[in-house]
Automatic annotation (TrEMBL):
GO molecular function, one term: DNA binding
SUPFAM superfamilies: lambda repressor-like DNA-binding domains
Protein name (record): DNA-binding helix-turn-helix protein
Keywords, alphabetical: DNA-binding
InterPro entries in the record: Cro/C1-type_HTH, Lambda_DNA-bd_dom_sf
Domain HTH cro/C1-type: 7-60
Family matches, as Pfam families: HTH_3 (PF01381)
Organism annotation: Paraprevotella clara YIT 11840
Signal sequence bounds: none
Length: 96
C-alpha cells in the first residue's frame, strides 16, 4: 500500500481531514499537501505525521498485520533508502 493512501486511510479512520492533520502538525495544509505529493518523503516529515496521527511510523506504510511487508522509499539526510521491512524503518530512525 502506498504511504499516501495509508495516511488518507488513517485520517479517515480518525475522522480527520488533511487540514486537521496539518493543524495537528503545526503546518499549513499546503505544506502537508506538498509533502504528500513528493516522490520520496523525508523521514522527519513521516515522524511528524505519525505523531500527529498517534501511530507508529511503520503504520504509515502498511496495515498492522502479522504478514505485512513494508515497501517504499524514504529520504534521510538527503540520501534515499529503500524500505522492505519494519526493521529497515527502525534502522533509518537510528540514523537521524
Amino acid at each position: 500500500m502506498d504511504f499516501r493512501a495509508r495516511i488518507k486511510e488513517l485520517c479517515q479512520s480518525k475522522g480527520l481531514t488533511q487540514k486537521d492533520l496539518a493543524d495537528k502538525m503545526g503546518i499549513s495544509d499546503i505544506s502537508l499537501n506538498k509533502t504528500l505529493r513528493g516522490d520520496y518523503p523525508q523521514l522527519q516529515s513521516l515522524e511528524r505525521i505519525a505523531n500527529a496521527l498517534e501511530v507508529d511510523i511503520a503504520e504509515l506504510f502498511v496495515r498492522n498485520t502479522p504478514d505485512s511487508e513494508v515497501n517504499g522509499y524514504v529520504k534521510v539526510k538527503g540520501t534515499l533508502y529503500e524500505v522492505h521491512s519494519f526493521e529497515d524503518l527502525e534502522k533509518l530512525l537510528k540514523l537521524k
